[in-house]
């Protein structure tokens, strides 16, 4: 009597003996191999320009092609806008629409026409000197507003001085220190404004550390620019559209002065600090210590400007449904923690928290942030410029700089 599994195994062997291998090799299998080989050759040919560093497919494939097409790599900053680059386009839906399902009626139409100076910063002219240098990330660069609506442009009008916009999207404190050394201080400013966004600046410290540790070698650079990687990411992005969570999970209803309500969406959540957050906070304090010393050595004052998350500004005004995660979010003490850290560095570092001004504007019916995006609207830039101007006016010494 055979083993219980013998008939199954022997049957499989018998079936193998009946296969007509020559017919298989000359038929479908051969066509499959031919198709596979053709695909491999085609993809290899597409990768040849990348191999010789002639082409970067990130500039051609996916929604971020505009971003990569107008940037160049930099050993210290990682990436920076091309000199005298121009970016023009439009898009419906802000940051929140990229992560959540949002009704079309709640999507904002964004248009932009951005021009950059010889160093890749958003200044209308190539500056040789400036009274005030403003350093920061996308809040300073201001993709979604006109040149005349930028915080820096409005501050220049209010102060009657030359203000340099040294903002660059995706930058964090460690890159901004390089910007200060390389581009800010050579302008010989009397005042340096350091704009800090609590939503992602600590995360930018963490990601920058990782990027520096893994500085691109030839192979990493090739993979990042490759057709295969960009195409795979684009396919993944298209397929992921179906699995976006509903926007109501990250939204609240904001009562307006006319009695109606407006749905406001949130991405960044304030909450308990992680171990990495605390480490990034310490590194930010050390970075600003160096920035203060560099400014003081050149006779410039340093003013730290805290930009709050959108939720910190709207939280007390919004009504949150049972489906919204935001109803359980708790604000942390980042503004006070940063104020204390800077105070321990030097009493000469100015500190301005924009939260009260932005909260007061919402109370009066303004929308300083876009409903479907984490960035300032033109109203937000106006409020920030006025708050900074008021601070400088109230603390100005005999020479016109902060006491």
Structural summary, described in words:
The chain has 403 residues and is of the alpha/beta class. It has a single domain (57-395), classed as Rossmann fold, CATH 3.40.50.1110. The chain has 16 helices and eleven strands.
How many separate domains make up the residues? 1
Distance between the amino and carboxyl termini: 101 Å
The strand line-up of the biggest sheet is 6-5-7-10-11
CATH-scheme architecture: 3-Layer(aba) Sandwich
How much of the residues is beta strand, in percent? Answer: 5-15%
What CATH calls the topology is Rossmann fold
Radius of gyration (CA) equals 27 Å
Look at the structure and give the CATH class.
Alpha Beta
Number of strands: 11
Helix proportion range? 40-55%
Low-confidence stretches: 1-17
Q: Structural class, from secondary structure content?
A: alpha/beta
Mean pLDDT comes to 88
Q: CATH H level: which superfamily?
A: SGNH hydrolase
């Amino acid at each position: 009597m055979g083993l219980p599994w013998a008939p199954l195994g022997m049957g499989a062997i018998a079936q193998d003996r009946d296969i007509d291998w020559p017919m298989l090799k000359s038929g479908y299998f051969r066509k499959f191999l031919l198709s596979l080989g053709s695909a491999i050759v085609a993809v290899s040919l597409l990768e040849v320009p990348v191999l010789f560093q002639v082409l970067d497919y990130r500039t051609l494939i996916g929604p971020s092609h505009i971003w990569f097409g107008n940037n160049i790599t930099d050993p210290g900053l990682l990436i920076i806008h091309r000199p005298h680059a121009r970016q023009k386009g439009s898009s419906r839906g802000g940051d929140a629409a990229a992560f959540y399902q949002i009704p079309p009626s709640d999507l904002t139409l964004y248009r932009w026409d951005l021009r950059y100076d010889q160093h890749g910063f958003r200044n209308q002219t190539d500056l040789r000197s400036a009274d005030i240098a403003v350093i920061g990330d996308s809040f300073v660069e201001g993709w979604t507003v006109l040149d005349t609506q930028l915080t820096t442009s409005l501050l220049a009008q209010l102060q009657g001085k030359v203000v340099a916009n040294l903002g660059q999207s995706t930058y964090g404190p460690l890159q901004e220190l390089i910007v200060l050394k390389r581009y800010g201080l050579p302008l010989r400013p009397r005042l340096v404004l350091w704009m800090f966004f609590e939503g992602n600046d600590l995360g930018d410290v963490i990601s920058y550390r990782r990027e520096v540790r893994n500085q691109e070698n030839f192979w990493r650079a090739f993979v990042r620019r490759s057709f295969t990687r960009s195409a795979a990411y684009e396919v993944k992005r298209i397929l992921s559209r179906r699995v976006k969570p509903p926007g109501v999970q990250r939204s609240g209803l904001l009562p307006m002065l006319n009695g109606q309500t407006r749905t406001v969406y949130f991405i960044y959540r304030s909450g308990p600090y992680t171990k990495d957050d605390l480490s990034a906070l310490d590194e930010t304090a050390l970075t600003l210590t160096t920035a203060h010393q560099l400014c003081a050595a050149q006779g410039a004052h340093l003013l730290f400007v805290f930009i709050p998350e959108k939720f910190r500004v709207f939280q007390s005004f919004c009504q949150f449904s049972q489906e919204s995660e935001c109803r359980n979010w708790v604000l942390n003490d980042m503004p006070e923690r940063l104020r204390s850290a800077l105070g321990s560095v030097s009493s000469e570092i100015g500190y301005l928290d924009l939260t009260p001004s932005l909260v007061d504007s919402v109370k009066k019916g303004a929308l300083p942030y876009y409903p479907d995006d984490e960035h300032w609207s033109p109203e937000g830039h106006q409020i920030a410029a006025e708050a900074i101007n008021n601070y400088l006016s109230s603390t100005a010494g005999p020479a016109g700089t902060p006491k």
